[in-house]
Amino acid sequence: MRQVAILGIGQTVIDEHWDKSLRDLTVEAALAALQDAGRETAGGVFVGNMMSGIINDQNNLGPLVADWTGLRGGDAVKIDAACGSGAAALRSGLMAVASGELDSALVIGVEKMTDRPMREVTAALATAADADYEVEMGVSFVGLNALIMRRYMYEYGWQHEDFAPFAINAHANALHNPYARLHQKITVEDFEKSVMVATPINLLDASPIGDGAAALYLVPADSLRGGTRILVAASAAATDTIGGHDRPDMLFLTAAYKSCREAYRQAGVGPEDIDVFELHDAFTIMSALSLEACGFAERGRGVRLGLDGEIGPTGRIPITTRGGLKARGHPVGATGVYQVVEVVQQLRGECGPTQVPDARVGMAQNIGGSGATIITHILKRE
Asked: CA within 20 to 30 Å of 113's CA: 101, 195, 296, 308, which one?
């Protein structure tokens, strides 16, 4: 298998884009990545998306994107792994280039979520859960995460305000990201006074949806001569039961543990070598669980990293350095690609006030459902 490098990146601002369609957002990010890579064509197009058929009445995104970006004629497919679709699309494009099947690939994550009433969007998001035993019972994703968070607090003795540093850090970092949706600094008091959504999760525990697209341009690493290269050192995926009720332990992300363990093996690194970690903080409880599953904290102690100031850009394990899902925004099918774009920015040294000093190894982890699909990528600067 060939080593693969990320040559170009592109992204759109995450917002309620009333004046832009699904294809407009996709083309904007794709052309930005092509321009950044200095290329005009790509051997294949891989589009990560969860809800275009439900919310936008548009499936078959592969040829749509290839057509509108001037890349028609080659391989082009849509990849769906719920909220993990972006990372799944990257993994597909990566395997195509690494295998030698393609000499370049354009990977795009896109979601256009705000054109339909919120009840329809909530119902569409729920399709990532178990239709018979969760959705049928009326449980939303915020409800599922609230149940997990409540049990975590009970088992390990944490209070709700102990999760505030995760949200505060994300918002502070998003202030310096022009592509982020939320640019408001928040305090512990703001966090505690926020409107309750599903006890104990309030509005500032949760990530906002939005419209957005992000893109990556992949090439064989040995095709690049001179200069800095951003290599994909590892790509690993794992799954768990689709329904949370079937898991023997709701407070451990088994698929995160398995995928990051395999990614560490592929990259020849461990948790102590990761300079920046873009985790899937759809809810603050997921930050704690991800840090624990990936070896940065003991079980039940992930919250401590936030309270001790270890998660900021100069901390022991910087997370959500561009705002994360919490403040950058969570256009679900695009999130996994945004995460990798942001790791590339860190390794290139392009993050300004939230730049992690001398970042050389970065990790991104994208979650589909409530932990059913988890994909981990590790990048290295060389």
From this structure: 195
